[in-house]
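Section 4.2 – Deliverable D4.2 (structural model, holo form)

The reporting period included a commitment to supply a predicted holo structure for the target in complex with magnesium ion. Inputs used:
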Amino acid sequence: MSDTPPLLETDHLTKHFDLGRRQVVHAVDGVSLAIAEQEIVGLVGESGSGKSTYGKTVVGLHDKTAGSVRFRGELLPQAYRPADFQVHAKKMQMIFQDPYSSLNPRMTVGEVIGEGLRLHSDLSAQQVREQVAGWLKRVGLEPDHMSRYPHEFSGGQRQRIGIARALIMEPEFVVCDEPISALDVSVQAQVINLLGELKDSMGLTLLFIAHDLSMVRYVSDRMAVMYLGALVEIGPANEVFFEPKHPYTEILVGSNPEPDPKSERNRASTTIAGEIPSPVNVPEGCRFANRCPKAMEQCRHQTPELIPLADTNREVACHLY
Ligand code: ADP
Ligand code: MG
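Output (structure tokens):
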């Protein structure tokens, strides 16, 4: 083990949403995860498992209900004030699935990409324009696209704009929240390749959120599997994909559409029985027990911890191990 702290580390990070009338959404419940410098960790799980909430809480877009986030060992604020974004914008940024759903449609592409620099740097307007022009080229667009509006671009081009908007801040750590799932299959690979090139040239560290496991396996060093707000398994991406340990991962991998000639499993036969429970009423014991084909009596009342599996690089939260 080396003495350098991980680039990014969350310790029992928790984010609950209080809906009032004693209804609390347990979106993220105690996630501990350490990401090394220049590592890519893929985060997978069904829709509603808390992936986006975790990513947003890590970068400070949500305050933390409990637990902590450290960047190179430095504790980040429990709740961000506007000045904190100024301080931390160069540490971490987030790329969204559709960066335009929440943006002002009257902002030009140049204003969208340059916004972070205008708010969080001392650069002059001319210097910001120069940087924006450079970034448009870097993501495969034209500098004179600056004066156009996002709706004039295709989905793939808009995602390139979203990538430029985040990376112009030269962050060290980036959360990519399903950056390609809204795109046509034909442009998905182009955007993935662009992210890969920028990752290499900038030395980025990434948390890559996606529900397409075969894509995550392809891009990630390690894969973390989330279920109902908690991690159930984490390990080297190929090992988790080809030899899943947790029954949930096994089913998730099995339901992945990619045909895999190496596997003897009958992928068509594996689907997840039952509904994901509501995060407002998280079941006692193992959260997955009500849908798990291998559930035992113990699973219904005792919560399994995420613990290292002997002789592997894997951590699994399951009473079978
Ligand atoms: P994923 O990204 O894995 O699909 P999310 O993090 O978006 O999951 O959501 C996790 C849970 O938290 C869901 O039940 C979702 O409805 C809930 N949730 C997310 N954001 C909010 C919010 N702002 N207020 C209340 N509930 C939320
Ligand atoms: Mg999401």
